[in-house]
Amino acid sequence: MSFRTTSPAASRASLPSRFAGRLSRMTWVDVVVAAAVLVMFYLVLRVGQGTTVRFSPGQSVTVDTSPGRLPYDAARSLLRMFVALALSTVFTFAYAYAAAKSRRLERILIPALDILQSVPVLGFLTVAVTGFIALFPGSMLGLECASIFAIFTSQAWNMTFGFYYSLTSLPRELDELSRSFRFTRWMRFWKVELPSGMIGLVWNGMMSFGGGWFFLVASEAISVNNKDYALPGVGSYAGAAIADGDLAKVGWAILTMAVMVIGVNFFFWRPLTAWAEKFKNEQSEASEVQRSVVLGFLRRSNWPHLLGSLLRPVGRALSTAGRIFGTDDRPLAVDPGRKRTGDIAFAVVAGGLILWGLIDLGHYLLDRTGLGVFGEPLLLGLATLARVVVLVVVATVIWVPIGVKIGFSPRLTRIAQPVVQVLASFPANFLFPLAVWFFLKTGLSINVGGILLMALGAQWYILFNTIAGAMSIPSDLREAMDDLGVRGRQRWKRLILPGIFPSYVTGGITASGGAWNASIVAEVVTFGGTTLTATGLGAYIAKATAAGDFPHLLAGVAVMSLYVVGLNRLVWRRLYRLADTRYAL
Amino acid sequence: MVLNTLRNLRAALPQALGFARPGEAPVSLSAKPPRAADGDVLLETVGLTKTYAGADSELPVLGGIDLKVRAGEVVALLGKSGSGKSTLLRCLAGLVPPSSGTVSYRDTPLTGANPGTAMVFQTFALLPWLTVQQNVELGLEARAVPADQRSDAARQAIDLIGLDGFESAYPKELSGGMRQRVGFARALVVEPDVLMMDEPFSALDVLTAENLRGELMELWESGQFPTRAIVLVTHNIEEAVLMADRIVVLGSRPYGTIRETIEVGLDRPRDRNAPAFEELIDRVYRIMTGRTKETRIPGRPEGTDLDKRTPANTPLPTASVDGLSGLAEMVAHRGGRCDLADLADDLGLEVDDVLPLVDALDLLGFAKISDDDLVLTDRGTTFAGADVQQSKTIFATATMNVPLVKLITSSLHQNPDSTLRAGFFRDVLAHHYTSEQVTQQLETATDWGRYAELYSYDADPQEYRLDNGAGQAT
Known about the structure:
The complex is a heterodimer of chains A (585) and B (474).
Chain A: H1 8-12, H2 15-24, H3 28-49, H4 70-101, H5 103-118, H6 125-135, H7 141-168, H8 172-180, H9 185-220, E1 221-224, E2 227-230, H10 234-244, H11 247-275, H12 293-300, H13 303-321, H14 336-368, H15 375-408, H16 410-425, H17 432-442, H18 446-471, H19 475-484, H20 489-522, E3 524-527, E4 530-533, H21 537-547, H22 550-581
Antiparallel strand pairs in A: 1-2, 3-4
Helix pairs in contact in A: 3-4, 4-5, 4-7, 4-9, 4-11, 5-7, 5-22, 6-7, 7-9, 9-10, 9-11, 10-11, 11-12, 15-16, 15-18, 15-20, 15-22, 16-18, 18-20, 20-21, 20-22, 21-22
Chain B: H1 2-16, E1 41-53, E2 58-70, E3 74-78, H2 85-92, E4 100-105, E5 108-109, E6 117-120, H3 132-142, H4 147-160, H5 176-188, E7 194-198, H6 206-221, E8 229-234, H7 237-243, E9 246-251, E10 257-263, H8 275-288, H9 321-333, E11 337-339, H10 340-347, H11 351-363, E12 367-370, E13 373-376, H12 378-385, H13 388-399, H14 403-414, E14 419-421, H15 422-430, H16 435-451, E15 455-458, E16 463-466
Parallel strand pairs in B: 3-8, 3-9, 6-7, 7-8
Antiparallel strand pairs in B: 1-2, 1-4, 4-5, 9-10, 11-13, 12-13, 14-16, 15-16
Helix pairs in contact in B: 1-4, 1-6, 3-4, 3-5, 4-5, 7-8, 9-11, 9-12, 12-13, 15-16
């Protein structure tokens, strides 16, 4: 990391003298920053200790629901989120790099990623929990890993896709620069490829992190194989409060959650997005830049310099060590025979492995339930599909006009955009008990109410993207329409709808994907002693999870993935193409 | 600025770049071959061809290039867009593999990026997240030069190129000219044998480009330039004549070949008002427009031989209807005849901008080239003076001599429901053009056909449809 204010003179001075110079100029800003870092380390250590507590699967689980426990629970939840984020980042680098650099691996990795993205993560929680408990017998670490895994699976795919895209769309001259100046591969990654992809990585990370809260809440307290598991955290706290039917404690949990979401945004993502501005590949100073109070504060302190000068030798050593990865060069002559042999060998091995897996899977299902196991989820999927369609249509009718209104007014946008961002990352499953309480009061069927529950999380993507789309309509177009007297229906048809279409499609895809995933927790809901169950694929998967019925779970998850992939290919992908060719502004 | 640079040069060069003072160790640690004497062959291509994959066959971009670059010379590769000059430069730099033939550096055939070259890019290719100093150090860092040595070398290269004071600035804080100076410093600091320049001044405004060219050539002439040769890619004739010792003119039809090599014997600094200079410019112009040795462009049949024109041998130039009518009107204002070089100069345009329009007027039978002049034909004169509806009618008649437009129109006429998918024409053209060229051919044909009201094109189903009001004012 290098900061702008480093002067050449400073880098020439010897290290000790620089150290002394800095120390004598320590300000209160530095003291505050140092204290904050110290406190953070302490917290991570304190909270981290809890994760290795002894635990055996037979143990009954009680969650202490006194509100005094909430700060500790919140810290545990946060730790999980950040560990998952770190894992996602490492995974992103490895997977995207492999896919971008190897023509052969790309053939398999990218379609696989596309499907992984559509798999309902919650359905696999059971498998993860049993697997990880077996991996760490007698320790909470197994459960901890399962929860982190669930969050990871909600974050990683999106980030990987984004980074893969930035790796493959590296501007041609930067690629030529790297090869012409004989960069090492290590240098190419850290100096060219990662910085070019940094903005996308940070923004994707932020969006994925927002989506991760939902899975955090869903994965902290689960029942698998008729056993209940709970990890200390806000999610399990809320789960216990819900089981007790204690609305006041649910309220405390919601408040804690809101503080966490906003706090992480303020102290982590805002500074990070503002910092990433320096990686913008544009030739002039931008007019509108991301700002962050926290980053400004950090930059005013001397710590970045100090850290920078301490870490620079480490960076140099790593860079020297990184030379073993070789020079960024491509052989000019490729032997077509060898290339072809390699391709064939790769195809045979990969195809063989996949075929072997399929046959094994077929045997497994045939032995237990027969292939007819797919019939029921296919039918139930239609019910859930209907819910998703109704949700998207109703959310569109309600939020598109509101979003356009907000997007056209700069004042409203300034207020509404951060609020909607927080709403979108707030885990909707937190609010389910309130909704169930409402259903019980009004007698609304869960078959209809389930749509409302799914919408609690999914609808915001439509609103958020509509606002962005409306903002992107150039004001001279709006003025031209005013001038020509185009208003009412005609204005919507000729200007507004085509203008917001590309953004709307992005929002629609995210909303529909989110709704499918949410159906697993929204079609079976509990509050106090009451459990409401809807007819649908989500409920089917939830039931199979709770009973530890792997064949049915597998069938349910596979069918849901099929529905999501099908919907994307048949509807959203086409709309995307239309948006790209016809309505790109 | 110029004086400043020269002063810096004398002060900085000896220590900075290691080679000037004998007995002193060079800054760079990499084992460098001995400095080449003037006339030694540094880069050589033998029978170099380059093709890109087309629909069913390989489409040639470069054909049979034999070229030598010697120490002590500045070679300009000059050609219109599509002549493969940038591809040739990248083959020399080892960035693009040749399809056949060899490229060698100091008699060793290349197997990867050329170790003896460094590139200066049209779009600068600076890393915006690094300071000027860090950008300049990149090449040395890649060669594992220790940090203190490379920062010294970089600082001296920065001084040499007139960037002192900008070390800690970020590229986006700099003007275009200053950015390209960073590009030069970054390439020079690694002391390559050959400096490769890919249209280095074409993204700059006229005055900045002029200033930077001048400084660079003074540095070159001083005899203490860190590199032994320069290869410059350009489409600007004046730039080539100003800078080069040898101009290699690449022709674009049917694909990139060396059309002619011109030795520039003029003394530096060159006076652009000298008669010899102007004579040379005119000569290069004639070669570029393809009317020197032969009266017709290779690959294209004579104007009278209309039957032999096909979409394959008569590509449409990238010229919009607005552009070519504008040029026709301008020539009409000057009495229907004007000198091409003067015209381009007066408009402040470069050959790449004007030649497609000239080709279009020629193809439509609106103008002819005679000597160095562009002369409007009778039809062209009428076209230039017509109102919108008349000009459409004249244009419609003229486009029937344009093979691709004619092909589309007659195919539509033969088709019962008068519509055809663009894919049909794409397939037809794919045998002769790369997919990018096909897109460009169809775009021009669509533009011309629409204006002539011969046919319409619906972008959504990608369909051509016969215009019912063809040729009439509707």
